[in-house]
Amino acid sequence: EDVTVQPEKITDVTAIPPPISNNNPQTLGTTITPAGDLTGTWGGSFSMKDTTSDGCSFSGTWEATQTQGGNELSGSFSLIDASSPDYPANDFCTLAPGTFSFEGGTVSSSSFQFDSSDYGGFHVKGYSTTDLIHGTFNECYDESCASGSFTGSRR
Q1: 4 contact partners, CB below 8 Å, separation of at least 6
Q2: Among 139, 123, 155, CA closest to 44
Q3: Residue range 15-43, pLDDT digits in tens
Q4: What torsion do the CA atoms of 6, 11, 14, 20 make, to the nearest 10 degrees?
């Protein structure tokens, strides 16, 4: 025997759904809770290229000691050692170790940034997970500027 079932209600699949009201009584704050705490010692490797006429490339190691309070970040970022494949052919391609102190950095979710005025200026923007970190930086010192990238982990 053939049985035919009639639907109780037919839905128009071409209908446009009503808009969702944005008059929600809850308000969103402008502060994003950090995904993790950057407090502690971090370190890893970096590479950078001098953007002046010398055009030197460098690679080396870095270490940072940071303190995070809410969304604020302070501490120091040190270039521990560096070498250049352009040296000794270009004797200007040397990079002395240096430490950049900073305060007033910001953390938002998994991203962070900070600036230092030490040695003419140092700007860092990066991203982190619980134990990994990576980002970019720009620095200027003694009429020479460079930009680069870094990766690392919690120590």
Answers
A1: none
A2: 155
A3: 565 665 555 555 555 555 566 799 999 99
A4: -170
